[in-house]
Write a structure and sequence with these properties.
By secondary structure, the chain is an alpha+beta fold. The protein has helices spanning 4-33, 40-49, 55-71, 75-88, 101-107, 334-340, and strands at residues 116-133, 146-147, 157-158, 169-170, 178-190, 193-214, 217-237, 247-270, 275-276, 281-282, 292-306, 309-320, 346-362. It has an eight-stranded antiparallel beta barrel. α1 (4-33) runs parallel beside α3 (55-71) and α3 packs antiparallel against α4.
Length: 368
């Protein structure tokens, strides 16, 4: 009990002092309305220094100081008071029905927009395989390969024309979804137009199924990737200057430098001589893939304003512009060619992604 007494006493003292500061602020505002300006700074400065005001009261107090210094011709002090006001309330808005023209004149001399924004996004992605040139161990004129559970025409099964058995060739694998995350630094270069760059971490995979010319002989592989990407984007946000708008749609275009950090393959063959790869094939170590790529990006999203910051919901499409497979080494890996009877085509990878995010606005008010 004795240990609690000092804590209770401190809390009660803080509450009483805060209530006293509220009264002092109200009195100072009454003095301003009645034209008694000179004693106002001394009345409320102590409460500001001791952080005894609530957030709303501190905004009122710092705005009151700016007004007092304006009308007592203390220009330097008025500028300091305005900077302190904008530090507390970076996007503080003046009311033409209440605030005098002199305060507007001072306010317009200061930067009230964020110097930059930091955006974090995370979500899921899935890949689309784009075949550049066909290579295979089966007859592709008769047997389509399946990628992520569908043929290039989007079918999850097919029949072979003229096959009297009328057997369906079905996909054995399905589409997978993987994690990605991104950190961007954004800078507004024109009203509604931002440029951004940062770093992105992306995991992905694609599956491939093929039939080696018979329905009872097929192979399945899963090719997995981990990318480190450096994106550069330009975006346009509707109604960005309207601070009353809560929902702000936006769109963006850009590109990225993509570096493949990790690539592995697992697979199996059924029928004939059944074979399953033990563990994973390291595709970088065996030089089966190209590590450097670049992509083009387009997307749309929605910003949800939260005070001076934003929650975001976004969808995007990335298209790889280079061959993912190292064609010079296509036939050198016996696990591929002999154990699985599989050869990778020349292909690029596109990605469909969705994400949720949060954008933090960074302010540094100063006089222009």
């Amino acid at each position: 009990m004795k240990k609690l007494l000092p804590i209770v006493f401190t809390l009660l003292t803080t509450i009483v002092y805060s209530q006293n500061c509220t009264q002092l602020l109200n009195q100072a505002e009454d003095d301003y309305e009645e034209g008694r300006l000179l004693g106002i700074p001394a009345r409320i400065t102590g409460c500001l220094d001791n952080h005894s005001f609530s957030k709303e009261e501190e905004v009122r107090a710092r705005k009151l100081l700016a007004l007092v210094y304006i009308f007592t011709d203390q220009e330097a002090q008025a500028e300091i008071a305005m900077i302190n006001l904008l530090k507390v309330d970076p996007e503080h808005r003046l009311d033409p029905q209440v605030d005098p023209a002199e305060l507007f004149f001072l306010y317009d001399q200061f930067r009230t927009e964020p110097i930059f924004r930091i955006s974090f996004k995370a979500g899921l992605n899935t890949s689309n395989v784009v075949v550049i040139e066909d290579y295979a161990t089966n007859n592709l004129l008769v047997h389509d390969n399946f990628y992520n559970g569908t043929t290039p025409d989007g079918d999850d099964s097919y029949t072979v024309p003229g096959d009297s058995s009328d057997v369906d060739y079905n996909a054995n694998s399905t589409r997978d979804y993987h994690f990605w995350a991104e950190l961007l630094f954004q800078k507004e270069v024109y009203e509604g137009v931002d440029v951004s760059s940062g770093v992105q971490f992306r995991t992905s995979s694609y599956s491939a199924d093929s039939y080696v010319n018979q329905v009872n002989i097929n192979n399945s592989i899963v090719n997995s990737q981990t990318y480190l990407r450096i994106p550069i984007q330009a975006s346009y946000t509707l109604w960005s200057s309207n601070r009353d708008k809560i929902l702000l749609p936006y769109g963006f275009l850009g590109g990225s430098f993509d570096y493949l950090m990790k690539a592995n393959l697992t697979g199996s063959r059924i029928g004939g001589t059944t074979s399953t790869i033990q563990g994973e094939i390291d595709l970088i170590e065996t030089n089966q893939v190209n590590r450097v790529n670049y992509s083009l990006t387009a997307g749309v999203g929605l910003k949800i304003r939260f005070k001076t910051h934003f929650f975001t919901v976004e969808g995007r499409y990335d298209t790889g512009r280079r061959n993912y497979i190292n064609g010079d080494e296509r036939y050198t890996n016996s696990n591929y060619t002999f154990d699985l009877a599989y050869v990778e085509p020349a292909l690029s990878l596109d990605f469909i992604s969705v994400s949720l995010g949060y954008t933090l606005s960074i302010y540094r008010p100063k006089k222009y």
